[in-house]
Design brief:
By secondary structure, this protein is α+β, with helices and mostly antiparallel strands. The protein has two domains: about 90 residues, Alpha-Beta Plaits; about 200 residues. The chain contains 13 helices and four strands. The chain has a four-stranded antiparallel beta sheet. Strand 2 and strand 3 form a beta hairpin. Helix 10 runs antiparallel to helix 11 and helix 12 packs antiparallel against helix 13. It is elongated and about 75 Å long. It starts with a strand and ends with a helix.
Length: about 325
């Protein structure tokens, strides 16, 4: 269940109230008149089953509540209520599979910003991946994969393409196009320092049997990227965001970017080219799979809304 809180001017309160009372997926509806101070108005609250939230938000925005007041959503971890159980039964579909598009847009928009923290995480992840590759340590490389924040911008690009939100596409693309080169430049500089102080030597890259997957590109690279992109977008659009950790471990974006920098500094042109290709294959595969999943989810959601209208009509 989701807790819905609507701040509305008094002129729209009755419309909001009737909308919530008429929705079979809403329960625990309460109205607090005159309690809102900024903006001035009333507060209407309800608990809404996840399957009904997306359509309900659209109807609230059609009333103009988002412009004259405000709407907030919070996830309810535990609800002990027969009426809440009845609301979930009344709306077709499974709550775990329901998509709240405004939530998806908000999450991807926030995670795709080219911020200082994003750049720091990406740079540190690349440095870790470079050290893991140089020392032939797959554990360190996996740690870098988990730390990398690149799935946020990739998801934003996919969501922007499907919803025709050019702002999301631009924001995600900027984070990737600016973030990766800067992180790779810092990694290359660190590699030069390691060379000067004698921590690494070009011969160290001759026997990387544990991490050679970073620069060896094959059909499996694209398949893994597709599967990871699909799983990541499913986790992002559903209530199973914890699965994103597994996605991070599956893709070879950060390690490929890092090793391309190391290989270039050490004059290993073939490995550098292979790593760069691995990076491109993973980025393209993730976005492609994410777009396909979003298109399927939208079609499935439209079908569920049609069934809902039939059941309530």
């Amino acid at each position: 269940m989701q807790h819905l809180r609507v701040v509305t001017p008094a002129a729209l309160t009755e419309g909001v109230r009737e909308l919530l009372l008429a929705d079979p997926g809403a329960t625990h509806v309460t109205v607090h008149e005159g309690v809102a101070l900024q903006p001035v108005g009333d507060v209407v609250e309800a608990d809404v089953t996840r399957e009904a939230v997306d359509a309900l938000l659209g109807e609230l925005c059609a009333l103009g509540v988002d412009r004259a007041g405000g709407v907030t959503l919070e996830t309810i971890d535990t609800t002990l209520s027969d009426s809440a159980d009845a609301a979930e039964e009344a709306v077709p579909g499974d709550p775990m599979d329901a998509v709240i598009w405004d939530e998806v847009v908000a999450r991807t928009g926030e995670d795709s910003r080219l911020s200082i923290s994003f750049q720091v995480f990406l740079t540190v992840a690349c440095l870790l991946a470079a050290i893991g590759a140089i020392t032939n340590s797959p554990v360190t490389v996996v740690g870098a994969m988990v730390l990398g924040p690149e799935f946020g911008p990739l998801a934003a690009v996919a969501v922007g393409l499907v919803l025709r939100r050019s702002d999301l596409v631009r924001r995600g693309a900027l984070a990737l196009v600016a973030g990766f080169p800067l992180a790779m430049l810092v990694t290359a500089g660190a590699t030069l320092v390691f060379d000067v102080v004698g921590w690494i030597d070009a011969t160290d890259l001759d026997a990387l049997d544990q991490v050679d997957f970073i620069y060896q590109v094959g059909w499996s690279s694209f398949v893994v990227a597709l599967l990871a992109g699909a799983a990541g977008m499913l986790a992002l659009t559903s209530a199973k965001s914890a699965s994103l950790v597994g996605v991070f471990i599956s893709v070879t974006t950060v390690p490929a970017a890092a090793f391309a920098s190391v290989a270039l500094v050490e004059g290993r042109w073939a490995e550098a080219a292979g790593s760069a290709l691995q990076l491109v294959v993973n980025l393209v595969g993730i976005v492609l799979a994410a777009v396909l999943v979003l298109l399927l989810v939208r079609r499935s959601g439209a079908r569920r809304r049609g069934l809902r209208r039939l059941s309530t009509g």
